[in-house]
Design a protein that fits this description.
This protein is mainly alpha-helical. The chain has helices at 2-7, 21-24, 26-32, 72-75, 88-99, 103-117, 127-139, 149-166, 172-184; strands at 10-13, 35-37, 46-48, 54-57. Helix 5 (88-99) runs parallel beside helix 7 and helix 8 packs across helix 9 (172-184). The longest helix is centred in the C-terminal third of the chain and has 18 residues, at 149-166.
Length: 189
């Protein structure tokens, strides 16, 4: 961080909302006063920020497990760009290109995940779930077909946690039935 601040580099701090707010306090003076305090080097030890120094923070929504509420003082220093999940065509293309599953199979996975996502809020289940389904099915030679027992089990294994986040009152048997029901359902718009 010191080198980046001194030389004007760009720092990408991925998933900063997973670190405790007190850890992120160092960024308050860096973003406001353009100085990086050097703790442990005595009173008044700091590095002036190069004019080209930039920092990009990425975070998950607050409702995600393992995230911390970012303090208001830090949020006031950010320019926030909220991203939504990608459209279905883009998600199909990503699955096809990243995992090698056929377009039709990618469509089947995206249909299921999109249907489940329509019940929740935000990204649950996420593109990560779609990629997981496609990757495992591809590597294990599991046909991506809602009638296939192995694919049903794979979907249950990957999607039961996101479904429990959407419907915390469902027991494990009800989660399985819900996923199976959604696999047979037509696409939700």
């Amino acid at each position: 961080m010191v080198e980046a601040v001194k030389k004007g580099h760009v720092v990408i701090y991925d998933e900063f909302s997973r670190s405790r707010p007190e850890t992120n306090n160092i960024f308050l003076s860096l973003l406001e006063e353009k100085i990086l305090p050097l703790y442990g080097y005595g009173k008044g030890a700091f590095v002036n920020s190069h004019p080209d120094f930039r920092i990009i923070f990425t975070s998950n929504p607050n409702e995600y497990t393992g995230t911390f509420q970012t303090q208001d003082a830090l949020m006031d220093r950010f320019i926030t760009i909220s991203l939504d999940y990608c459209d279905k065509e883009t998600e199909v293309t990503i699955l096809h290109k990243k995992t090698g599953v056929a377009q039709e199979e990618a469509c089947e996975i995206v249909k299921l995940v999109s249907n489940l996502r329509s019940y929740g809020k935000g990204f649950c289940p996420s593109l990560r779930s779609s990629l997981m389904l496609a990757t495992i099915a591809q590597k294990a030679n599991i046909p991506i077909n809602s009638q296939n027992q192995n694919y049903q089990t794979l979907c249950f294994d990957v999607l039961s946690n996101p479904v429990k986040q959407i419907f915390p009152d469902l027991n494990i048997k009800e989660v399985r039935e819900f996923i199976l029901q959604e696999m047979k359902k037509k696409e939700v718009n």
